[in-house]
Amino acid sequence: MRPRPRSPKAISGRSGFTRSASVCAAIHSTVADHGPPDRLVACAGIGASGLLLEQAPADWQRVIDTNLTGTWLTMRATARAMVDAGSGGSIVAVSSVSGTLADRDMGAYCVSKAGIDMLVRVAAAEWGAHGIRVNAVGPGVTRTPMLGAPEQLPGWVEGLTERTALGRLGQADDVAETIVAVLEMSWVTGQTVFADGGLALHSPIDAYGQVRRLMARRQAGSAE
Prior knowledge:
This protein is an alpha/beta fold. The chain has 7 helices and 6 strands, in the order H-H-E-H-E-H-E-E-H-E-H-E-H. The protein is elongated, with a radius of gyration of 20 Å. The strands form 2 sheets. The protein has a 4-stranded parallel beta sheet with strand order 1-2-3-6, with helices on both faces. The protein has a two-stranded parallel ribbon with strand order 4-5. The termini are far apart. The chain has one domain: 3-Layer(aba) Sandwich (Rossmann fold). Helix content is 48%, strand content 12%. The longest helix is centred in the N-terminal third of the chain and has 29 residues, at 57-85.
C-alpha cells in the first residue's frame, strides 16, 4: 500500500485528540474527502514535570488524556476506517525512551509513554488479522520546542551527549526518518523502535561512566 497523494485533514487542538466524538468526526471527514486512510502517525503529546507525591491529579490526568487516551482514540478511529474498508494499513504511535527508563519528576509522562508501548502491542495482536500493522517509535532527547533550552542547565547537554552512543542530541528529522521507515516495514508489528542515537543502551546507574568522571575530576584537581 502506498500513501495517498492528497494529505488528510488534521485534528487540530489538544481537546480534539482527547474527545472521541471529535476524533471520529475528523476521521469520517477524511474518509469522505480522501478515501480510507492506509497510514497513521499518532504523535500528539505533551510533557510535564512533577514528583509523584506532589503532582496535582488534574496535571496527571491532563498528561494521560493527551498522550495515552488521545493516542488510543486516534488509533481506534483510524483502524475502524481501515477495517471497514478492508484495506489494511500501517499505524505508528510516538512513544519515548521514557516509557522504559524511569525518570524522577516525570512520572505522568513516563507512565503515559509506557502505556503507548503496551497499547501498540495489544492493537497489533487484535488488528493483525485485518492486515493492520501497529508499531511505536520511541525518541530519546530531541531538540523540539518541548525540550526548551537545555543549555540553561550547566553540563546537562554535555552529560547527555557523552551517554548517547552517537554523541549528540536528536533532531526532529531523525525521529521523522524513523517513523517513515517503520511505517513501511511490511513484516514488523507490535514493536517499539527507539530513535535515540543509542541513549537507552546504557544503564542509568552507569558505574563505568561515573568512575571515568571521578577519575577525570581527580586528574584535573592534581593538575592544578
